[in-house]
Each structure stands twice: as structure tokens, then as C-alpha cells.
Amino acid sequence: MKLILRLLLNALAVVILSYVLPGVGVDSMTTAILVAIVLSILNFLVKPILIILTLPITILTLGLFLLIINALIILIAAHFIPGFEVSTIWWALIFSLLLSFLQSILHSILKEDKKK
């Protein structure tokens, strides 16, 4: 149940950001749920491989290259999901940063409600 609730919160964050950012588009809530699922799968499977392959440049940039890896993961998801569009890598980078921020806010609200 917790996993489904987290996916729905992530999908809500994707929808909110698609309205805020002009370079990101989502067709429907179903597409947003699919984006949340695909992003979680890509973060679980592909991201560790990319981190290991780019470890020297990540160390050289003091970890800032991880932001580019996050943007690439979003662009990969946009490539595979019809109805989810990200125009450039810069919009993917901004989307990635704001998505992480919004997810942390939504998940912290969820934890506060659970404590009460």
C-alpha cells in the first residue's frame, strides 16, 4: 500500500511540474503514473550502472555530474513513454531538481500525517 501511495505522490509531482515548466509536458494522469513507475525502475536499474561508468568524472566534478545523470534518466523515460515530453536536457535538469524537491515535500507531509 505504501508503494502505491508513493507512486501516486510521485505522479502528482510530475503533473504539477508539467503545469509549471513549459519545457515538460504530460498528457494525462495515467501517463504521469507511468512516468513515476518508469522513473523508479530506471533509477533502480540504469542509474547505478551510469554512476559506476562515470565515476571518474563524478569525482572530478565533486558529484555535480550526478545532476546530469538524473537529467539523462528523465530524457530516457521521455523517449520511451508516449505522452511525456521533455524538450531539452536543461528542462530535464530543472525538472529533475524540482521533482526531487517536490517529492521530498510530499513524502514529508505523508510521514507527518502518519505520525498523528
Automatic annotation (TrEMBL):
The chain crosses the membrane at residues 32-55, 62-82, 88-110. It holds the Pfam family Phage_holin_4_2. InterPro entries: Phage_holin_4_2 (IPR007165). It comes from the Bacteria. Keywords: Membrane, Transmembrane, Transmembrane helix. The keyword DNA-binding does not apply. This is Putative membrane protein. It comes from Flagellimonas flava. The lineage of its organism: Bacteria, Pseudomonadati, Bacteroidota, Flavobacteriia, Flavobacteriales.
